[in-house]
Amino acid sequence: SASCPDGQKRRVCYYYDSGIANVDYGPRHNMVPRRVDMAHALVRSYGLLDDMTRLRERPATEDEICAVHDHDYVDLLRDLTLGNKPVTCDVKAYGLNKVVNGSIDNPVIPGMWDYCQRYSGGSLTAARALAAGEADIAINWSGGMHHACSGKASGFCYVNDITMAVTELLAHFRRVLYLDIDVHHGDGVEAAFADSNRVMTVSFHQCTEGFFPFKNGLVDDVGEGTGIYRTLNVPMKEGMDDEGYHRMFRPIMARVMEVFQPEAIVMQCGADSLFGDKLGRLNLSIGGHARCVAFMRSFNVPLLLLGGGGYTVNHVAACWCYETAVAVGKEIHDDIPSHWYDHYYQDQGYKIHYPVKQGRNKNDNGREAYIATTTNKVLDHLSK
Ligand code: TV1
Ligand code: CA
Ligand code: ZN
Known about the structure:
Elements: E1 12-15, H1 34-45, E2 53-54, H2 62-66, H3 71-81, E3 99-100, E4 103-104, H4 112-131, E5 137-140, H5 161-170, E6 176-180, H6 187-193, E7 199-206, E8 231-236, H7 242-260, E9 264-268, H8 286-297, E10 303-306, H9 313-328, H10 370-382
Parallel strand pairs: 1-2, 1-5, 5-10, 6-7, 6-9, 7-8, 9-10
Antiparallel strand pairs: 3-4
The structure holds ligand TV1, calcium ion and zinc ion.
Calcium ion binds near residues 204 and 205.
């Protein structure tokens, strides 16, 4: 089938913690943790749970979180949630409760510490299943919080589960590839491993004036010290479609696999790179997004699939359900089965693959040949 080009099955482990469904960033906030519960409900309704091993829920411990975060920041996350510290203390220095243009990216919310432990525990548990050789692919759609820094929250991310998972994998594998297809630049993970020659980070993202995280992820940002040329960035303009995206993605990722030869891959599958996202301005279809997953799967290297961004929740849930099917190597029917959340899919005609209305692709401006130029620059970095 299309999602299983090599015809091989994979042993897939799946992490889902129902304790995340009710986490609330606030009434106007774009980040809606319930989308993971929606994806899970879809996965279940398609019968995909029967094709995977369900990983046991295990929240990360304070020590595990402290392995990649500063002690004082971790103490603050815990104490604020448990009411041991007033929310009025100096939380803004840690990226929390900062009001910018009337909105707060990283609010101090009820259950914040528990939420951090649950989503990062999922990525750690999934990484351990790969390290133990118990699975070929491990999935945690509640993870992928790529902006969190060692000492502060950023971009809706409180703790960096990806950095934790990569660190865990490094205890078992010599080289780990991190690939990030979220519409935003994977700055937190890039920074954590910029000087490492055992981790290569690759981020594809929208890079336009005023788009978060602003000055990061330029095509010539290639890492530093012993990690030089092991950071790659593929910036894009608005309106990128499937065809243009894959004209960059395939040659770049094929070459990355060839020169870096990772023993494990961590892939952040942020669904805000899809057409119609509330924040992103790229035009990928679910099929185009999932082809990135299928392509990485085809190398048959232990693969950790994580969530991330994604703000039009019906699109996000459909995308991650479809990618779960790609992971197990099953083609699923386009008609969404009737289930608890099915009314959310009315706008897309109760289909997984909603239509992409093609607008102007600012990357495909013949004269500038942006796609070819950028791809060649990245391939040139890779040749070093
Ligand atoms: C509350 C209510 C928060 C409404 C945040 C969009 C809101 C945003 C909100 C928002 C929003 C951002 C900035 C703030 C500079 C800062 C999970 C002016 C309509 C991985 C994080 C994007 C992306 C942060 C996370 C960004 C991820 N965009 N309405 N905030 N500011 N922050 O631009 O990569 O997907 O927008
Ligand atoms: Ca990205
Ligand atoms: Zn994002």
